[in-house]
Amino acid sequence: MGSDEAPPLARDTIAAIATPPGRGGIGVIRLSGSRVPQIGALLLGQLPEPRVARLSVFRDRDGGKLDEGLALYFAAPNSYTGEPVLELHGHGGPVVMHSLLEACLDFGARLAEPGEFTRRAFLEGKLDLAQAEAVADLIDAASREAARSALRSLSGEFSHAVRSLATALTDLRVLTEATLDFPEEELDALHRDDATARLRTLRERLETLLFRSRQGRLLATGIHVVIAGRPNVGKSSLLNQLAGEERAIVTPVAGTTRDALREPLEIQGVPVVLVDTAGLHASQDPIEKIGMQRARDEIGKADVLLVLFDASGHIEAPQDLPAGPARIEVYNKIDLNPQFVPPTGGIAISAKSGEGLEQLKDAIVRTGGWEQSGESVFLARERHLRALESARSHLEAAARLSSSGGWEFLAEELRLAQHALGSVTGEVSADDLLGEIFARFCIGK
Ligand SMILES: Nc1nc2c(ncn2[C@@H]2O[C@H](COP(=O)(O)OP(=O)(O)OP(=O)(O)O)[C@@H](O)[C@H]2O)c(=O)[nH]1
Ligand SMILES: [Mg+2]
Description:
By secondary structure, this protein is α/β, with parallel strands linked by helices. The chain is 45% helix and 17% strand. The chain contains 13 helices and 12 strands. The chain has helices spanning 36-44, 94-106, 116-123, 129-140, 144-154, 157-181, 185-221, 235-243, 286-301, 357-367, 382-404, 407-425, 431-439, and strands spanning 14-17, 24-32, 54-59, 65-74, 85-92, 110-111, 223-229, 261-267, 270-276, 304-310, 326-332, 347-348. Strands 3-4-5-2-1-6 form a 6-stranded mixed β-sheet, with helices on one face. The chain has a 6-stranded mixed β-sheet with strand order 8-9-7-10-11-12, sandwiched between helices. Strand 1 (14-17) and strand 2 form a beta hairpin. Helix 6 (157-181) runs antiparallel to helix 12 (407-425) and helix 11 (382-404) runs antiparallel to helix 12. The longest helix has 37 residues, at 185-221. The radius of gyration is 29 Å and the shape is flat. It starts with 13 loop residues before the first strand and ends in a 6-residue tail after the last helix. It binds guanosine-5'-triphosphate (GTP) and magnesium ion (MG).
């Protein structure tokens, strides 16, 4: 992995502001690289003992005082990156932070690129690729469930599951190669039965892993839910109810909403983006027509469509509702019509009283693909899903070959499956892939 990277000691020293821009009680500058001890001595007068926080004065090249705060030194290899690392905890104002960073650069550090700290951690073997990605995913997590599963990947649970599959695959490869090398009748039949059984188990385990990863993918991307229906059926009222605050304008006038309004929420731990749209009906009003076009565009992008009806009177379907995503029919205003019974599959609610909303929330996450299986999920990336799916198709091909007697080619399919699994953790990874992954990090990570 990364064999053409420079050896650790020749790598230059990088520096970045590790805390978000703006003002805060504390701001942290992070440095990593072989020159950290020298730079630290110049900045602080003396390098602190490793892992002992020391109150220090931070000085520039002319000895001028820039700030004072805690300095924390980590000696190689016991640091985040595996290189010597220094953290300066100063006062979190933009001017202080920038002057501190400038001093670090004056003393010979260079500005870190996005994700460069984590990239070094990967290259030093501190984290594998899936764990490194989990660092960014944890920072970006949009719900508690998403954060929990990112943390699971960061602590290596996902990598472990992938690796243990890869190990089982290696065993199977050894077995099949042996079958090819010793085509002696009896041994052969025994080996083949064993190999077939193992292949079956492997495929089952991969299915489970894929399921857990797909569920995790949902936590990373969230479910995109669009509310559509005729004017005045209570779309904006429903958005406000689910959001728990008055976000959209609600009036008894038909055609209140024109723009699509989006509201991020969390339902049962799953991130959901809810979109309120303009009512769909026959109208010649040019503004309403634009609003309805926007509504249709939103419907085209939805994972789940809530088609809202007014159950307080005559039920009318919305005009020209595009065919599209999975939909749930929702009957609103049942506080005005308590006898109302929704058609099968429909859900009766009142956006006013809140009745039926729990059932609706359940239906939203289930229709969006979330299954509470009790099994912990992994916050997988698209890249991981593609790799696992590729491993699966090679194992499928292997299974077909084993039942048709094509054992010579089976070994090759197993090798390809293993290669796909290896790409998840970075055991096999091209440099351009690394570049693509780490470039999406923010600076200082
Ligand atoms: N009684 C009752 N009134 C409701 C309920 N939901 C909405 N309303 C009322 O219905 C009217 C229209 O509500 P909105 O939420 O603005 O409806 P909308 O579908 O967004 O309407 P447009 O934006 O015009 O398409 C308002 O007067 C709401 O107070 C409900 O569950 N029960
Ligand atoms: Mg509205």
